[in-house]
Amino acid sequence: MGKIAVIGAGSWGTALAQTLAAAGNEVVMWARKPEVADAITNEHHNPRYLSGVMLSDSILATSNLYECAEHAEALVIVTPSRLTRQFAQDLAPVVEDDTPIVICSKGVEEGTGLLPVQVFEEVLGNIDRLAALSGPNHAEEVILGVPAGTVIASRSRTTAHYFRDLFTTSYFRCYTSPDYVGVELCAAFKNVIAIAVGAAYGFGFGDNTAAMIMTRGMAEMSRLVKACGGDALTVMGLAGAGDLIATCTSEHSRNRSFGKALAQGATLGGFEKRTHMVVEGAVACQTICPLAEKHNVELPITTAVRSLVWEGAPIEPLAADLFKRPLTTEFWGLAEAGEKH
Length: 341
Known about the structure:
The chain is α/β, with parallel strands linked by helices. 49% of the residues lie in helices and 11% in strands. β7 (148-153), α7 and β8 (172-177) form a beta-alpha-beta unit.
């Protein structure tokens, strides 16, 4: 295979680079810090993320973005979601019009409400060469070859199948979907719900509470996905339910861990400084809420998380307010038994 450029050398970028190498590809990673790029190339490990894992000899790295992307057969974008537009603009001079690009960042752009694929389309054009990758994929397990599945979504079946075949290994199984809107919204949304679950545990609530938050969180996800033009059924798949379960229950989940720490007095800045990781759910709860307001969709759990993270609201009254909400049918849009539609 030709050169595959992985833009981003965090934990997920490193795990995906290792997966691509295991699938027989030549991989070049872009790392922001030159010392990280040098260590990946010369010592075959990432000194900052997943540092205990030896990387494939076929993985090289550079801190020069143009050098990484130039003449690449395909690009894999694994950067913080808030920087999506910046990287799309930075890559514009060097990326060909038909170069396949798969975006693994998870979020909604502040101000515009655009999803990562939509941002790249706006900057680079040709949406049919764009795809999104998301699923229950903790980097700490994927890099070790622990079996996992993911979803690659693209409007173009050819592009989806291209990246499916590019990433698939004996332990990393890829499914395809045409619903990039649903997949990308689920990817952002599940991080918000994971913060809520973590906060519930941190406050002293139990498994019953966590299960309720997860399930009602999926209801919020499906309402917004449908309102934005996606398929509500996507929420039941790997990118929705699968990723939500993994993110809300795993010890590897930074969003769940942050929620738990937040309930015990931590701050967002302090947590990110200590872990060297971006809490994507903290950003997502700010950007998803305006999107929901635009489409007139109620998101009570997401709104509560935004109040908790950004306004310092205490958990107890937030939980009380959620329980005071009007009682209704479980499934949105369905009338109660015996009730006239």
